[in-house]
Write a structure and sequence with these properties.
By secondary structure, the chain is an alpha/beta fold. Helices cover 36% and strands 20% of the residues. The protein is built from ten helices and ten strands. It has helices spanning 5-25, 82-89, 108-125, 143-154, 158-163, 190-193, 196-200, 237-250, 272-275, 280-295; strands spanning 32-39, 49-55, 62-68, 94-98, 131-141, 175-179, 226-231, 254-259, 262-263, 266-267. An eight-stranded mixed beta sheet has the order 1-2-4-3-5-6-7-8, with helices on both faces. The termini are far apart.
Length: 298
């Protein structure tokens, strides 16, 4: 048993209250059609649902962004990123906002399988929307940044996919967006280390998926370009630089935005663009990431 689980549950229960308060005050941009709670696995599990957001003025096929929410691997649903996803859609994208099962009930392998099941549904079904499936992008924040980085490697490696029992690879991503990503859980950061048993089981160091907790051990050179976002108030600030170093060493194109300016007299926190998507700094970096994606369209 993970002795830290009770403490983690308390932390995330408090976060749940903070997020609920935040979401009540969020203002969604106009002009977005919402298709909610679509099952990507037909098993009745709420964690196997996704939303699709489509700009009203989509006259032709639009590029696609898939968003994977954060929450320390063990917390959250697509709803906590909904306002952020609306703002992404306003940049001229169809946005797919997905759930996945949470650690504490399942392990890391199961979570990756869920995310790829969502990819498979998208590959089979999204053309019923005005979606340009030749231009698909993937974003994630915090733990979601870890997931999307791993997925970037998995989509390029059949050998790695075999470890997760994933045979179907329906999507290729033109670029990846990683907001306040976590890419090294084996680092000296105790806050990150406590998640290892929860993600991998009690004998976590012997798990075949232990290497996925340190991205440089599984990253491959033909991954798509990355846009990386961090800020001076990001408690995992150094992780963005670790990700950039991995990408630089492999020759993978990338752009790192490290927001050092204060906003309303305060340093911007972890995942600021997601947590305050209506703010001026969020507007800047959301557009910047969208422009980065557009630069990598076919």
């Amino acid at each position: 048993m993970n002795v830290f689980m009770p403490a983690l549950k308390i932390v995330w229960e408090r976060t749940r209250h903070v997020d609920a308060k935040r979401m009540k005050t969020e203002k969604y941009p106009n002009g977005i059609k919402e298709f909610r709670d679509i099952p990507y696995i037909e098993d009745g599990d709420m964690y196997h649902l996704l939303d699709v957001y489509v700009p009203d003025d989509a006259g032709t096929k639009l590029p696609v962004i898939i968003d994977v929410h954060g929450g320390g691997w063990m917390y959250g649903t697509k709803e906590i990123n909904k306002c952020y996803c609306y703002h992404l859609a306003r940049q001229g994208f169809i946005v797919v906002n997905i759930n996945y099962r949470l650690a504490g009930k399942v392990l890391f392998k199961d979570q990756i399988q869920d995310i790829f099941s969502a990819f498979q549904w998208i590959g089979r079904n999204l053309e019923s929307f005005p979606a340009d499936m030749n231009n698909v992008f993937l974003t994630g924040d915090s733990a979601g940044g870890h997931f999307v980085s791993i997925c970037a490697a998995l989509t390029k490696s059949g050998e790695l996919r075999k470890e997760f029992d994933i045979s179907d690879n329906p999507l290729q991503f033109n670029a990846i967006g990683a907001t306040s990503p976590v890419v090294d859980l084996i680092s000296p950061n105790v806050i990150l280390n406590v998640n290892l048993r929860m993600l991998l089981g009690s004998n976590h160091r012997k798990s075949p998926f232990y290497k996925y907790m340190k991205f440089d051990e599984v990253a491959v050179s033909d991954m798509p370009p990355f846009y990386i976002l961090t800020s001076s108030g990001d408690f995992v600030h150094s992780q963005s630089y670790k990700l950039k170093k991995v990408l630089d060493d492999l020759g993978v194109p990338n752009k790192l935005r490290d927001w050092q300016f204060k906003y309303k007299g305060k340093r911007l926190p972890h995942c600021f663009a997601v947590l305050d998507a209506n703010s001026r700094p969020a507007a800047v970096v959301i557009k910047e990431m969208a422009d980065f994606f557009k630069e990598h369209m076919q």
